[in-house]
Amino acid sequence: MRRPTLDAVATRAGVSKSTVSRVVNGEPTVAADLRDLVMRAVNELGYVPNPAARSLVTRRTDSIAVIVSDPSTGLVSDDPMFSTVVRAASREFEAAGKQVVLMLAGSDDARLRARQFVAARHVDAVMLVSMHGADPLPAALVATGVPLVSHGRPASRVPMPWVDNDNVGGTAQAIRHLLEGGRRRIATICGPLDMSAAQDRLGAYREVLSETGRRSIVAIGDFTRASGTEAMEQLLEDDPALDAVFAANDLMAIGALRALRRAGRRVPDDVAVVGYDDIEAALYTDPPLSTVRSPMGEQAAASARLLLGLLRGEPAEPVVLPTRLVVRESS
Amino acid sequence: MRRPTLDAVATRAGVSKSTVSRVVNGEPTVAADLRDLVMRAVNELGYVPNPAARSLVTRRTDSIAVIVSDPSTGLVSDDPMFSTVVRAASREFEAAGKQVVLMLAGSDDARLRARQFVAARHVDAVMLVSMHGADPLPAALVATGVPLVSHGRPASRVPMPWVDNDNVGGTAQAIRHLLEGGRRRIATICGPLDMSAAQDRLGAYREVLSETGRRSIVAIGDFTRASGTEAMEQLLEDDPALDAVFAANDLMAIGALRALRRAGRRVPDDVAVVGYDDIEAALYTDPPLSTVRSPMGEQAAASARLLLGLLRGEPAEPVVLPTRLVVRESS
DNA sequence: GACATCTCAGGGAGCGCTCCCGCAAACTCT
DNA sequence: AGAGTTTGCGGGAGCGCTCCCTGAGATGTC
Fold first, then answer.
1. Residues A187 and A236 sit within 8 Å (Cβ to Cβ)
2. Chain centroid, CA A236 distance in Å
3. Neighbours of B94 (CB within 10 A)
4. What is the rounded CA–CA span in Å between residue A321 and residue B158?
5. Nucleic strand C within 7 A of Cβ A80
6. What does each C-alpha distance from A194 to A109, A131, A150, A197 come to in angstroms?
7. Distance from C-alpha of B294 to C-alpha of B325, rounded to nearest angstrom
8. B99, B121, B284 member nearest A225 (Cβ)
9. Are the C-beta atoms of residues A83 and A146 closer than 8 Å to each other?
10. Which backbone phi and psi does A312 adopt, to 5 degrees?
């Protein structure tokens, strides 16, 4: 038993396919009585348009790919960024009547699939999330001619609009705050350097310190809790006299807190800690974490809106959202 | 300028559309030399099949909806379950060549959209995540006749296979552990009671306590950190002499730790705390959290595999995955 | 060698929809 | 009142693919 088609509805309502199509698509040029007739037939038959047939002729799919770089190695992690960004973007897209196709660009294989998928015009547009600089996917997608937007400034120079938060300004606020608090040996745990957010935050840290004639103390993490712990241990070994640490995200700050606790350092008395992002967990650490609030959900929503605008033919310029320091008890 | 079609490839290769179709779909009944000829034309033209045209005739879409209940009220939260489950399921589906369409079933409007979307056969199958008992969506989806699976046993009686973890066994282990540690007044912070996981965990808590002749001390949360803090404050007020608390998930346990800290109770000396799930954050609390390890990612992957099996026509039975207590320093 | 069987390529219908075109009826205007 | 314009509906081509059917040539059988 097959689902009812436009033709079936037309026959039942005693009108033509064209009229049913017009009614279903909400065109105003249909007489009210005919419209009612058609709607009754639609409801009686439980008619739902076939999206494949529709998009075959319209060349639209009304769906948007959200492509997230996802490390294929290791376990799935509970990255709060993923949840916040994907949800916020999804809400925005769904409100605009667009379907969200989620793709994880972890392996080379997955990236190839994503490329093919977009090339096949399975989606009308693509939103890229947390791409690494070395990733060839963004450039490959630009070549398909599909509208694109990046959540976060792309690390490599690819021509596409993006939305980011003020990484430089936010970091500068954090470091100045530590300096004003009398901290003299301020270390940082930075993120993976092939990502623009990590680069920008590290750059701003260095910039502010060099302005005041202080030297940088850097350990490299990868934005995970575990890497924060490791990096902190490394820092304590490198410079046991450090009195503050700026972690490039909260997850690493949480990891650093653990390392400090195990090393017997008191926070903030011995070492001040400041994170970045202000995820919900930052409120629940002991002591509660000072951090730079980045509007992650807003950034994702703004990226989504930018892309929707692009789809309507509006121009798109990069957007930088403001950040602000939230001082709690860890600094 | 339009994308190349099957016809274009056929003309270029000097064969028929049918042959190109066979080659593209990997059918073995094509002579090797013809196959090479076709593949060369495909590559030269950059041909990618049009998925809409294909699914119009095959009545398959090769995509699967993952529908997650998402509270429309309030901010987007950084629920680690969302990240873990969605990623694990996506990986499984993508490995099987299926696209994942993510839908958030927050508002009634979104639920209606999801229903229509599935009714339109925009997807071949549906995976439901963390549905509430009162939600009419699961039953509505069953009515569409699309293959379904639920991540977590559905709270209401709807006929669909599901994968869950051993909520009862896991909770029982946790409570017995607290009893064996000499705890006498064991409270619980349970989840929203319209969810089966919350029901099962609360039921097992009550069961074990009543076996030993002890009374229940219950506060209700909603699986968020904030609700854990509130519930813990309530519990301390109701029974200041309590010496242990079992939180129905780690997020609420983390919230409870905060309330205990603010109330000046030492963990585990004054109050032992045990959570549920063993999310990564449980390792980073102070003290590290004892918890019941539920294989969340595995559960999601198993749900996905069950659904893929269903799609291949295999039968599907509910699955319950084992859990195990992980004792750390909070108990 | 005659006939049946098998293999593999091509022809073409048809999936369900949109949208252009044409036509008839209803207006408007001088 | 007649010609021109507008409005609303139906007819039908065509989107790009799959898959059934047909038939030519290769292979097998006695």
1. no
2. 32
3. 23
4. 45
5. no
6. 21, 9, 15, 9
7. 9
8. B284
9. no
10. -90, 5
Please identify which residue in the block is written with the tokens 């948007």: A64
User: Sheet of B125-129: strands edge to edge?
Assistant: A319-321, A162-165, A148-151, A125-129, A63-68, A99-104, B99-104, B63-68, B125-129, B148-151, B162-165, B319-321
Q: Does the C-beta of A60 come within 7 A of strand C? A: no
Query: Can you give A90-156 as a three-state secondary structure string?
Result: HHHHHHCCCEEEEEECCCHHHHHHHHHHHHCCCCCEEEEECCCCCCCHHHHHHHHCCCEEEECCCCC
For residues B24 and B13, what is the distance between their CA atoms, to the nearest angstrom?
13
CB A250 within 8 A of CB A282: yes
DSSP string, B47-109: ----HHHHHHHH----EEEEEE---SSS-----HHHHHHHHHHHHHHHHTT-EEEEEE--SHH
pLDDT over threshold 70, residue B77: no
Which pTM was predicted? 0.94
Q: Where are the alpha helices (H) located in B242-295, listed in sequence order?
A: 250-262
Instruction: Provide, as residue numbers in chain B, all residues whose Cβ is less than 8 Å from the Cβ of A110.
Output: 94
**Each residue of A22-43: pLDDT tens digit?**
999 988 888 888 899 999 999 9
Q: Which residue is nearest to nucleotide D16 (CA to C1')?
A: B53
- Residue B326 sits at the vertex; the CA angle it makes with B324 and B331, to the nearest 5 degrees, is 130
Q: Read off the pLDDT band of A72 (50, 70, 90).
A: low
The protein side of the strand D contact, defined by CB less than 7 Å from any of its atoms, consists of: A 15-19, 22, 29-31, 34, 53, 56-57; B 2-3, 5-7, 17-18, 21, 24-25, 47, 49-50, 53-54, 56-58
Query: What type of residue is A104?
Result: L
CB A243 within 8 A of CB A183: yes
3-state SS class at B218: strand
Q: What is the pLDDT of residue A2?
A: 78
